[in-house]
Amino acid sequence: MEYVSTDTLVRPDATTDETTDDDTPKFFHYVKKDKIAESAVMGTHVVALCGEVFPVTRSPKPGSPVCPECKKVYDRLRKGD
Question: Chain-centre distance of CA 54, in angstroms?
């Protein structure tokens, strides 16, 4: 069984991740802010804007890579499309 580590990026709709072989996050995903704390405390899973599902376990550092699919959805939401 492969385990996926996750991180959280605090942005308007915040994010989390998939990992690489060295346990470094590949991307951070946008998720609803109100679900981040619940996931971190209760271990529940969150759903990113791109559809990825995972529990929140870490916080990202500034400049961390963002999932391109989440970014596309987020940008469309901000423009009101």
Answer: 8
- Under 8 Å between Cβ of 54 and 45: yes
Give residue 4's identity as a one-letter amino acid code.
V
Is the separation of the CB atoms in 31 and 13 below 8 Å?
yes
Single-letter code of the amino acid located at 8: T
Q: What is the mean pLDDT of residues 42-51?
A: 94
d(Cα 21, Cα 49) in Å, to the nearest integer? 24
Instruction: Give the separation between CA 58 and CA 60, rounded to whole angstroms.
Output: 7
pTM for this entry: 0.63
First to last CA, the chain: 39
